[in-house]
Amino acid sequence: MAYTSWAASTTYSVGNIRRATLLQNSGLVFQCTTAGTSGSSEPAWPTDIGSTVTDGSVVWTAFNSIFEELSVIAPNAIIELFELHLDNTLHGATDVYRWHNGCNADVSGNITWNSNQYTRQPIEADGFEFTNTGTLPRPRLTVSNLTNVVTNLLILVNVTTVGNDLTGAKVKRIRTLKKFLDGQTDADPYAGWPIEEWFIDRKSSESRDSVMFELASKFDLPGTMLPKRQLVANLCQWAYRSSECSYSGSNYWDVNDQTVGSLALDRCGKRLSSCKLRFGANAELPYGSFPSAGLNK
Fold first, then answer.
1. DSSP code of 5?
2. What residue segments make up the domains of the chain, in order of their start?
């Protein structure tokens, strides 16, 4: 079914279902579970199934927009769409390329969803499954290159950033049902699974037949150390006379904590003793380190 959008200052009964007025990535719609009148402004809709939100005197509960259709004996055909979004800084453009894999027997040729046309393009995508191993998935997206469309795109973006190969481009994976595509009786761009957003981490391979990319989540940061700030015992990490350091006095010392006569010779030794010289031995110190690190009882 196509869902009606939410409206302000409207009376709703238990069981009424409404969608947000703007397209959301969550793929959720909202059922009235406490009757009443909606507020004068749209609420901040929840993003997970089962969550509730109070809207005036109405209480809405979130559920999946395609649950009803998938629960029938013969559910409608599942359509998988892909969008490639370029980044102007990395790729010299903000173009968006839209494809669908065209392998569903109920769909042939290009299709339109949410007023956007998706070109039929042989695509293979896998590895999106989440596991309990503690590691994020790194899906693989293989796109046909028989017409050199991807190779030509790689050449263009590499002019802006040499060797980039589309690294950093956003890939959206959209899944909906055939009945919700534009032109269908129940057309509804708000009905579908949550929209997934990935980023190209690297080009795995390129041939005349296809180009394979490895995708990663924005939270997948290989080589990043947490916490980023190391627990160093006696070496201040603040830049001297910066906003973190906050020292702006007219007394000057060198790196050995010896008095000097001018600002040009003023250097901080980065030690706790250096901080005490400037702020006072018994004052609260903005010391950018951890003097107690490594100490044992």
1. B
2. 11-65, 78-216, 225-297
